[in-house]
Amino acid sequence: MQGIHGIDLARLEAFVEVASARSFSRAAERLNLTQPTVSARIAQMEAQLGVGLFERLGRRVVLTDAGQALFPHAQRTLQAARDAAEAVHALRAGGGGSLVIGTAPTVGTYVLPSLLQRYSAANPSVEISIRTGRSEEVSQMVLDDEVQIGFERQLGHPELESVPLYEDDIALFSSRHHPLAESRVTSAAAIANEAVIFFDEGSSYHALSHAVFHNSGASPRHTIDVDSLEMAKRLVLRGLGLAFLPKVAVEEDLVRGDLVPIAIDSSQPIRRSISVIWRTRRVLSDSAQSFLSLVGHVFGVERMPEIRQPAQQPRRLTVLR
Fold first, then answer.
1. Which residue among 18, 271, 286, 295 is least enclosed by CB atoms within 10 Å?
2. Radius of gyration in angstroms for the set of CA atoms belonging to the chain, rounded to a whole number
3. In CATH, what number does 83-166+273-298 get?
4. In this structure, are residues 16 and 75 in contact, taking their beta carbons and an 8 Å threshold?
5. How far apart are CA 76 and CA 120, in angstroms?
6. Which residues pair with 272 in a beta bridge?
7. Given this model, what pLDDT does residue 259 score?
8. Percent of the chain, pLDDT > 90?
9. pLDDT at position 263, please?
10. pTM over 0.85
11. What's the confidence (pLDDT) of residue 206?
């Protein structure tokens, strides 16, 4: 299949994967191809365009100026091809299609499964793909048309529609055997004398939890840094420290009494707004529109912003009750 000026879509896909992974070997793994095949497709594309697209710096691969100029257009071309294939598939199957979602890990682990359970029951023929990343990465996935819909903490971007869904409440938790579990109320200074488990600096939880100590002038004597919410929770359950965790992640642990919330004197509630997003100028597929309808219904959104409709066919939404 040939694209504009005869650019083969398979070569274009290889280019996007190498640019995204910054590695020929990782791109080959993602595409289920051999590395020589990927290298050959890139070489053919460079010869066809008459420019180099990548610079090889040891094991690292970086885009040239020409590669950087091509990258966003290549992504949109591939997405347009996927959308076209989905439209034909849906027409032939009398429904179906695909839904590609990007999500922050907390939403993906603790909120999205119940949504997808309801959605799949009403739309059993839709193929669903999920990609995870931090909120900034999810925004970029949506902007790059890698996913149709995203879930993130509310960031705001002029090219994205963003609808707040719920407040992600965050609190300090200990195991039920921790000395602070009995009083359930303490000060930031007292917490500073305990081991505290923090998320790594790239996480928004890191800044939110550190602000509690910054505002009080206290500093934890011992910290454990992790990059996984589940790991942090497991460490707390094992009595290895305290951690600031989103309440949505510990509901079952609270019911069982395994974790105990610890209130902090003179501390403001910690929360962040979670939103669903999609690219403003993108025409969403029927499957994506149906999913947004479900999201709005579940979270009590009275009115979703107007969604652009495909010009060639009327909107078909799954009726949800």
1. 271
2. 23
3. 3.40.190.10
4. yes
5. 27
6. 168
7. 96
8. 49
9. 92
10. no
11. 77
Structure tokens at 321: 């009750």
Q: Where are the alpha helices (DSSP H) in 128-247?
A: 135-143, 188-191, 204-216, 229-237
Q: Note the CATH architecture for domain 168-271.
A: 3-Layer(aba) Sandwich (3.40)
Domain with CATH 3.40.190.10 in the chain: 83-166+273-298, 168-271
pLDDT at 308: 54
Identify the three-state secondary structure at position 63: strand
* 25 contacts 18 by C-beta, under 8 angstroms: no
Q: Which CATH number fits domain 4-81: 1.10.150.530, 2.30.110.10, 1.10.10.10, 2.130.10.10?
A: 1.10.10.10
Strands (E), the chain: 54-57, 60-63, 98-103, 127-132, 149-153, 160-175, 185-186, 195-199, 222-226, 242-246, 259-264, 270-279
Written as one string, the DSSP assignment of 266-287 is T---EEEEEEEEEETT----HH
Q: Which residues contact 96 (CB under 8 A, 6 or more apart)?
A: 89, 90, 125, 126, 127, 287
